[in-house]
Amino acid sequence: MRKNGKLVLSPYKKNEITAYLVVVLFFGIMASLKATGVLSRSLSGQLIPIAAYMIMAVSLNLVVGISGELSLGHAGFMSVGAFTGIITSLYLAQAGAPTVVRFVVATLAGGVAAGIVGFVIAIPVLRLRGDYLAIVTLAFGEIIRNILNVVYVGLDRNGLHFATTSDIALLEGGSMILKGPMGAITNEEISTLLEGFILVVVALFLAQNMLNSRTGRAIMAIRDNRIAAESIGLSVTKYKMIAFVVSAVLAGFAGVLFGLNFSSLAPVKFGFNQSILILVFIVLGGIGNIWGGVISAGVLTILPEALRQFSDYRMLVYAVVLIIVMLVTNNKSVGTFMSGLKGKLTSRKKEGGDDSEKN
Fold first, then answer.
1. CATH number of 18-272
2. Which of 238, 298, 275 is CA-nearest to residue 78?
3. Are the C-beta atoms of residues 150 and 163 closer than 8 Å to each other?
4. Which of 294, 295, 296 is nearest to 284 (CA)?
5. What span, in angstroms and rounded, lies between the C-alpha atoms of 73 and 77?
6. pLDDT of 182-226, one tens digit each?
7. Do 250 and 104 form a contact (C-beta atoms < 8 A)?
8. Per-residue confidence (pLDDT) for residue 231, from 0 to 100
9. Which stretches within the chain are classed as H helix?
10. Boundaries of every domain in the chain
11. CB 107 within 8 A of CB 172
């Protein structure tokens, strides 16, 4: 928009541009460090999981920050996407599909599968509020993980075979893809840093455009005042369903990227602790702050590896850092100081602009 003949960006547009710049800068620096051999092997191996966690932070922020509902089972959607993507990728590999095609189709399949599961779960869940909703989403996350523990999938020249026991009759040359609690043990690592970067940008694009749309404004209106939103004809169930399903689809994308980065992957990886880790990302990054969650996901994933030199004390240092960040970000004095500093910088810019116009 224009103000006094000058082009002025809205706060939403500024946040959107900031998010893209943060992602481009981060991945550009990491790719350069990896290419020059500066990054250690352990940190290099964390780059694709970091991209997956960034997508998860964007995904969960749609539910917790934008919709205002607490979900504690988001890792369940990630697991659905991961194992759907692995099955799709290995099936296409048997058909001789190129690696890029396998990844793209697997990503779409994982997102659709997670979205369907999210829709089914949202039907009963969105009738609840507050602590009840958090407990039920936690339960669904654990249910999904335990279902995966009893799923066995085999692949031979006749196609895929599904069962709830390990007794799957496969033709000669066939192989098992999923082995119940052992998960995927014959996976192919086809995720790349470039694909992770693209998926993060796609997630940001979908989330930012949704927030700036009529649907996003309706979701935030329901979050701020449910009764007022209902009084003007907004369907609470409809808009919360949209936020929940879109969030599940993005979690499915993250799951595919994460799952296709490992040669073996077990359902236990997507337990309660994984859901809490993702929640920590958005709490420290600022609930409802998309780019803050992205930064937090990157920093908090790298931090334990960067502190590995402290051996047994690294997790203690990690916890202390988390506590300090939470105290600082929630301190009113710090907030007042930053607001005052921002106001001074803004006033100086205006004074500089006025002086240049006079000259």
1. 1.10.3470
2. 275
3. no
4. 296
5. 8
6. 988 888 889 988 899 999 999 988 888 888 888 888 888 888 888
7. no
8. 87
9. 11-35, 41-44, 47-61, 74-94, 99-125, 130-148, 193-211, 214-224, 226-231, 236-259, 272-285, 290-306, 314-329, 332-358
10. 18-272
11. no
Cβ neighbors of 343 (< 8 A, separation 6 or more) are none
Q: Read off the tokens for 39.
A: 């990054």
Give yes or no for residue 258 having a pLDDT over 90: yes
> How far apart, in whole angstroms, are the C-alpha atoms of residue 264 and residue 181?
12
In the chain, % of residues over pLDDT 90: 25
| Rounded to 5°, angle at Cα 53 from 47 and 54 | 90
pTM of the model: 0.84
Find residue 162's DSSP bridge partners. Answer: 153
The predicted-structure confidence for 77-124, as pLDDT tens digits, reads as follows 999 999 999 999 999 998 888 999 999 999 999 999 999 999 998 888
| 3 state DSSP class of 194 | helix
